[in-house]
Write a structure and sequence with these properties.
six-stranded mixed beta sheet; Purple Acid Phosphatase, chain A, domain 2; alpha/beta; binds zinc ion
């Protein structure tokens, strides 16, 4: 199966549309959570995503906050403002969809979570030490995570203690020989100083993983963020990808 892997769309419809177009035909779509938060188009992103055939979608921390499952105090000021804004404009259909999302799921023998297999909604897998520990918290060959907004692959060799990291080059495919924790980066708010939307294609037969980047019209999203009176910082960061 050719699988489109998305994460951290963050209510950026323009980026999501571009990614879906760029990815072309796929057999399944896996979304690793944080469909909403920061951006101006939460309802539109959920509606577009729901149309995908063979969709598996996970719950992210921003999605959980909109559902009142996480106290707002745990977010920084600007993130909190954006969650409060969504709660005012969110449609019943969006709430209904978000409330069905699991925190962890196994599909095609791959573990999917938003944060980490150890702490699915909250933990950031940001370094080798943390990644090495997290290999003990899933049984499949591959676990996919989002949450950090950084495309990266943690690869374990035959010796499970020997873990290295790789920042995948665009269009270069990595073949997973043993085990890996894979992050496709963020569709709607990349933080690796490359403002282009990030996503990955996973082939579940050959175990290959390929990260792709695609440009989108950042200015139009910034306009909508400002028009909605969302924090200006959320508009600014999109231009440089931080
Ligand atoms: Zn996120």
């Amino acid at each position: 199966m050719r699988i489109l892997v998305l994460s951290d769309i963050h209510a950026n419809l323009t980026a999501l549309e571009k990614v879906l177009q760029d990815a072309g035909e796929v057999d399944a779509t896996w979304c690793l959570g944080d469909i909403v938060g920061y951006g101006p188009d939460p309802n539109e992103c959920v509606a577009l995503l729901r149309q995908r055939a063979n969709l598996t979608c996970l719950l992210g921390n921003h999605d959980a906050a909109v559902l009142d499952r996480i106290p707002l105090e745990t977010f920084n000021h600007d993130a909190r403002r954006s969650i409060e804004w969504i709660q005012r404009i969110v449609s019943p259909a969006t709430i209904q969809f978000l409330s069905t999302l699991p925190e962890k799921i196994l599909v095609e023998e791959v573990t999917l979570v938003h944060g980490s297999p150890r702490n699915p909604v909250w933990e950031y897998v940001l370094d080798l030490y943390n990644a090495a520990q997290n290999f003990n918290h899933f049984d499949t060959r591959v676990c996919m995570v989002g949450h950090t907004h950084l495309p990266i692959a943690y690869i374990a060799s035959e010796n499970p203690r020997d873990v290295r990291w790789v920042i995948p080059l665009e269009n270069e495919s990595i073949t997973i020989e043993h085990r890996a924790i894979l992050n496709p980066g963020s569709v709607g708010q990349p933080r690796d100083h490359d403002p282009r939307a990030s996503y990955a294609i996973f082939n579940s037969e050959t175990y290959t993983w390929q990260v792709q980047r695609v440009e989108y019209d950042v200015r139009s999203v910034q306009k909508r963020i400002r028009a909605a009176d969302l924090p200006a910082r959320h508009a600014l960061r999109l231009l440089e990808g931080w």
